[in-house]
Amino acid sequence: MLQEDIKIENLLLNLEHIELVANWVYQEFCEGKPDRTVDFVINCFKNRNLNKTPISLIALIDNKCVGVVSIFDNDLETRPELTPWLAGLYVDPNYRCKGVADKLINAVLKICKNMNYDTVFLRTEHTANYYKKHGWTFVEDTTDEYGQETSVFMRKLI
């Protein structure tokens, strides 16, 4: 598979994939959080935007959805001054290590730059080494509003 085979599109232009990506995001990031249900996540995705945050992008290969990522004003309530955030990056396990995540991340960075941001933030609980290897700068280890330990990274947009 080539990078050119991966198409990145706004989720709002591909509504048929909302339930799939909502289930991925719920299972990966929301399960066990009492105020988050699959229906809550589906409704969040239905309320995304085309040209302003929050935005969700999907990766398509032969019209099959294989990944998702979002851009939020804030993804860490304990650090409201930091904005915008790359959030909810998920790639179908069958398509990992094939460039899908890189393409989704690059699309987020391009959109944020076009929105005149000079820095993008993200948080991660398990993939700090991935982001370090891909040029993100560690900011801090902190705790979120649920008491979960998380690492914050940033990326300058040139």
UniProtKB/TrEMBL annotation:
Pfam (any one): Acetyltransf_1
UniProt keyword terms in alphabetical order: Acyltransferase, Transferase
Single Gene Ontology MF annotation: acyltransferase activity, transferring groups other than amino-acyl groups
PROSITE patterns from the UniProt entry: GNAT
Keyword Transmembrane helix: no
InterPro entries, A to Z: Acyl_CoA_acyltransferase, GNAT_dom, N-term/lysine_N-AcTrnsfr
Domain N-acetyltransferase residues, every copy: 8-158
Domain of life, per lineage: Bacteria
Keyword set includes Acyltransferase: yes
PANTHER family: N-ALPHA-ACETYLTRANSFERASE, N-ALPHA-ACETYLTRANSFERASE 50
Protein name, entry field: GNAT family N-acetyltransferase
